[in-house]
Amino acid sequence: MDRITHHGESEPMKSESPEITAAREASPSIPGDKVFEIKNDDGSFDTGSAAELMAHADIDAAFAEQADTATRSAITCFLKFGDL
After folding, report:
1. Any residues with CB less than 8 A from the CB of 6 and at least 6 apart, and which?
2. Which of 10 and 84 is assigned the larger pLDDT?
3. pLDDT digit string (tens) for 3-61?
4. What are phi and psi of 39, to 5 degrees?
5. What gap in Å lies between CA 57 and CA 61, rounded to an integer?
6. What are the CA-CA distances from residue 24 to residues 54, 76, 83 (Å)?
7. What residues make up the domain containing 76?
8. Number of domains in the chain
9. What is the rounded distance in angstroms from the CA atom of residue 10 to the CA atom of residue 15?
């Protein structure tokens, strides 16, 4: 099972695309002083090493997973109890 590593701890991910898996496998072989620039969905840019950008992506993915869980819980609660 795929995992997210955050501050030295590891937690399971729901799923990971083949592109992310390939990037994880390749990132250790990329020199740490090589800087990349990526464009985010909102049009902003992030720059950093491959490891830094992968760590940032892991944090974003973990946040999205938590937000999804919270949204599902809120919907379930509303459907069960209605608008109080």
Report:
1. 58, 59, 62
2. 84
3. 444 444 445 456 778 888 888 888 888 888 899 998 988 999 999 998 898 888 889 88
4. -100, 125
5. 6
6. 8, 35, 45
7. 3-81
8. 1
9. 14
